[in-house]
Amino acid sequence: MLGAKPHPDLLAALTVANGNPLLVRELVEDLREDGALEYDHDGVRLASEGLPQQALTVMERRLRGLTPKCRHLLQVASALGCVFALDDVARMLRETSATLLPVLEEALAAEVIVSTADHLAFAHEVVWQAVAHTLPPSVQHALRREAELVSAHREHPVAPTSPHTAAGALPVLTPAHTIDSMRPPFVVRLVDARLAAGQLTSAAVLARDTLAQPVPAALAAELWGRLANVLIMQGRSPEAAAAAERVLAATGPRDDLRDDAQAAWVFALSLHDQARARKEAQAILAAGEGRDAAAVIALTVLANLAWDDGDVTEGLRLARQAVDRIHSATPPAWRLHSELAFARKLANLREIDKATEIIRASRDEGNSSCPAFHAAASSIAMARVLMLAGRLTEAREEATQVLTAARELDARLLVPLTLSVLAAVALRTGDLLTAAEHVERCRTELTAGCTPLWSVQYEWVKLLLVAEQDGPRRAAEMLTDEHAGLLTRKALFIEEPGAAAWFVRLALVVGDHKLAETVVATMNQLAQANAEFPSVVTAAVHAHGLLEHDAEALERAAAEHREPWARAWAAEDLGVQLANAGQGRDDAAVRYLEAALQGFEEIGAERDVARVRNHLRKLGVRPRRTSLLKREPAGWESLGETERTIAHLVSQGLTNRQIAKRVFLSPHTVNYHLRQIFRKLGINSRVELARLTQDYSRQHALACTTPNSAEFGATSQ
Q: The pTM is what?
């Protein structure tokens, strides 16, 4: 709108709009029309010092949307400073903290104030100033005198307000004053407040803006450390590593700051430069530098690298050692990462109960610097565990909630992993359109420079989708082209017990016997190196049984696989092999195919179910339909999960574009699903669909769920 770069004073004034595009536009237009802006060679700034009247007007409009009691609380709090304690406000209002909780909740929801571990704070210094300006000067003076008396009785005073407010005038809003008026503890507390409120971008901007100006060395070290952690959560690991290095290069940072920076540094490196991360993690442990967090993360990074190398024993040992080293002083962020990394390894070995216990415990841990990110990280770990356990609907719901939270937070570290889980669930439940959209969005995230966790899952799901959409030959071509390195990713064969058999099956379908032999040889070596882990050994047995047409090996795999999808596939492979062999083995073939059918039905893998049914029909068996997967040719029961979700959202009056945002699909795909719904229900309008959906909901008390997505992974035999 302005055609020039805005100065910090102008950006600060615009924060009263709370990011609302319409209010921002209105405020900028008013400032321009009133001649309140001036241009110079550096950009555009406010023409005069202090908050412009237009900003005050916008803030007054925001406050009018609150209840009188909430406005009263905010005005009194403004006399205590930008950072304040709830009990001080309660004393001034002659109330208790408990009676103010409903009003406080309203103020937090309106994002006028945010909460830290110890105090409350206005969302921005400008917001604080604007709220104070809604009071007459005489009232401001009276409240400040009372606030001084209240604060004087505190054993640990809250961070002081700006010295410029002493005479009753609000601080002049220039770049220098914006920083000078914030003493080091105040700036750090405000960054922490934004992190606690889940405002990662806002916290990063405040830290960067402060660091762009001359600041004390102690404050710089604190802010670079905070920034490194935020950048990790945003998936910007090279920048995070550089920020952490600034702390390590500083003269005499506090021991806890240096420890945290070392942890951030080596963890960020592990996301984009594994060779260097390994070297630095080993150096930290060898030199005994890691006081606490650095040692925990160095062990965790080495555990992850050992796992990627296919050394399950060493990976588990180091991961367990990292968790054992955690104690009460370990920062929550690093404790969470190490615990979830350990839980993920247990889950991938199908130690589902142990993994679930660790994840649930991590969810209950408090005092996190960013509770929303903490919860999202725990939830995506749980979503993957649920998927591995065959609980696809729960996995999809958990991952969908994570995706919403991660996008609101701008926590892009978690987004590709979440999309991979959603795509995997969609594939297994036969929703190829949804799976394709999640894979494409994941690709977009990765090409945008995001450095996510566990990216092997993305490559795996993408290959499975290509096999389903474009056929096995195209999937095989990808293994010699863009995904040529996937066959050497040992972690894939550990984490996905059915992957080796899937590659062998693919190779046999396209007639590439050499590929099949390579996969089996790799899997055998991996099993020999990890003989004490049943899931790895069983995966090798399954792949061998397919290649060598070894019925005994396939029977063993069908009995010993812990992962439901791989177990059902082993039963299907054996059933098909027995049927092809003939010689009176049809009864045994039917028995194993029915076992496979039941396994796929129990996890909701609809495309796999259809394929197994086809095998049974060729043997003259018409399998019964179970209630778990019943799909009528028409009517409500014929709708899939995604279709039911869209139907419920239509009944709520949402447009296709609104539905697309809610279910993370494109409007085009929503429209496709809507046409399918109309066809299955024999209707022609959204009004009819809304009526039918509401009738069905009343009859069956169904709650609206969210869409399908996830991993499938198999070519037709």
A: 0.65
